[in-house]
Amino acid sequence: MEDALHTLSPANASSPSSDYPLCPTAATLFFLPSIYTLLFITALPGNGLSLWVFLRCIPTISPTHVYLSHLSISNLLLSITTPFLAAYYALGQVWKLSGVPCQLVLHGITPVLHINIYISLMILTWVALSRFAALIKNTHASRPSAFTTLLPHCFFSRLTKVSFANAVCVTVWVVSVGGVVPVTVYYSVHEAMSGDHEEGGREEVCYSPAVELGGSVSGTLSVLVITIFFAVYLLVLLSYMMVLKHIRRSRRDAHITTSKSLLSRVLRNIVVIQVVLSVCLLPYHIFKPIFISLAHDQLQLAPSPGTDTYSGCHPLSIFVELKNCLFLLAALRASTDPVMYFILDRTFRHRTLKLLRCNKSIGEQRQMFWTTKESTNQKVEQLGEENVVTATAELSQTVL
Question: Phi and psi (nearest 5°) for 206?
Fold first, then answer.
């Protein structure tokens, strides 16, 4: 299924290759459904447990806890959609475009997918900024960081407040939902459904060029989204470089020994966020403009003899599959985020381990209880038998 932010020109319907179907390989028919099923099995309990720990097990909430709890909510929504994605890639070549399953994927699953991606992008950025603010506020080098001179001091103090984190998360949800939903609605109603016609008595299927390639309006906004992603990515990278520079200056001071743990934690957190953005989201956003360019060129040029079009397949079939695999890489972040929480937040790590140990100890206590009860019953039975034997012996002696 195409995200609503890819581009094609309005010549979509008149393209010579648009009448040819996509030809999925084993990567689409088996690999993607299997991994999305595995993602559902791992992401749903992992993020459910994480959200429970954030909301119920941590007495003192920090801004990082607020950000990560909202990220867990977004990941839970994503994990619920993964069975539908698995079914789409396995059966999309059979589903009719106007059928209920296809319409559910277009109108319901598509917005959730992209809301999750960009909520995750913005929340992880604010986590990195809040960690950097904590570094600036709690450690002091011989010369203050350049950020303290460029930005007002109240900005850094607000980054470390829970109320500010709540306001940021609400704003992120409003911006993401308000920005993604209108585009995906237009995509699913006008662009994807442009292929809803019958040719030679054959109705268009769900897994088709119209669905996977998108249209011009959603494509126009893709340029803005790609720009925002790289701006945010560079912002996190800049904060990482500033932390390294701040640590180098701070280690020259004799009194900084008390802050070494904070310095190492902040550096580790920003590195983890940078790795997540680089591994999960960066490949997809690098390939998006390449895919857009290929699709646009394909529409402008008539297919030449010997291409896949003349063999009965759309010439961009393999690129569509590559795009879907990179999108899967972005979605896999929902399964690995609970592991990231362990690394980012020490309180979350301790509380989760304590919760798991508590459940384990409860099971052990129950087992010990039933074992003790059984042994007690056995002792009672043995004592009863001994009493019977003693009473019989006394009675026999009395008779004698």
Answer: -70, -45
CA angle 125, 128, 131 (to 5 degrees): 150
pTM for the model stands at: 0.77
Q: Contact at 8 Å (CB) between 17 and 315? A: yes
What is the pLDDT, as a whole number, of residue 341?
A: 87
**Helices 63-91 + 317-331 axis angle, to 10:** 150
What are the tens digits of pLDDT across the range 336-387?
888 888 888 888 888 888 888 865 544 444 444 444 444 444 443 443 434 4
Could you report the per-residue pLDDT of 231-253, keeping only the tens digit for each? 888 888 887 777 777 777 666 65
- Two structure tokens written together for 388: 């019977």
Least Cα distance to 277 among 325, 198, 231, 330 occurs for: 330
Helices (H), 251-332: 260-276, 282-300, 317-331
d(CA 31, CA 111): 23
Distance CA 146, CA 281 (A): 29
- At residue 96, the 3 state secondary structure works out as strand
Q: Are 32 and 89 a contacting pair, CB within 8 Å?
A: yes
**4-21: average pLDDT:** 48
d(CA 144, CA 119): 32
Q: Is the pLDDT of residue 261 over 50?
A: yes
Residue that is written with structure tokens 């319409």 in the block: 103
**Nearest by Cα to 48 from 331, 397, 378, 352:** 352
Say which residues have a Cβ less than 8 Å from residue 55's Cβ, sequence separation at least 6: 69
What confidence score (pLDDT) does residue 395 get?
A: 29
Helices 216-250, 282-300: crossing angle, 10 deg rounding: 150
Angle formed at CA 92 by CA 224 and CA 205, multiple of 5 degrees: 90
Name the token pair of 33.
């459904």
User: Positive or negative, the Cα torsion across 246, 248, 249, 255?
Assistant: positive
